[in-house]
Amino acid sequence: QVQLVESGGGLVQPGGSLRLSCKTSGPSDSVFKFLTVGWYRQAPGRERVLVAQISNSDVATIVDSVKGRFTISRDIGGKEVYLQMSNLRPEDTALYYCWRPGFWGQGTQVTVAS
To answer: Cβ distance 110 to 92 under 8 Å?
Structure first.
């Protein structure tokens, strides 16, 4: 069974940084590097929204609200996708999810507070 496991969340002060990781495992993990992978977030009482996406040709798309602060990348082995988050703001507080076609991870909590 395909699994996506996020890690790297936590509590950070405004202006701080975190790096989230999305690791795949399962029967099709060898094709992960050929798939579009996205990071989404969901704040309490709000809809889940796209934050960043890396295409199957490794083209990165970053939404305007985090552009210049967040980057998305893959590891060389192609089984992990990272979301590097810098200059974090309280409004970045949310549950962050990794997605690949057909599958979601369980989410990792990011809390930005003094």
So the answer is: yes
Say what percent of the chain tops pLDDT 70. 97
pLDDT at 35: 86
What local confidence, expressed as pLDDT, does residue 28 receive? 66
Token pair for 71: 């980057």
Q: Tell me the pLDDT tens digit for each residue of 26-76.
A: 776 677 778 899 999 999 999 999 999 999 889 999 999 999 999 999 988
| Nearest-angstrom CA–CA distance, 101 and 55 | 11
Nearest to 40 by CA among 50, 28, 30: 50
- Residue 26 DSSP label: S
What lies within 8 Å, CB to CB, of 64 at 6+ separation is none
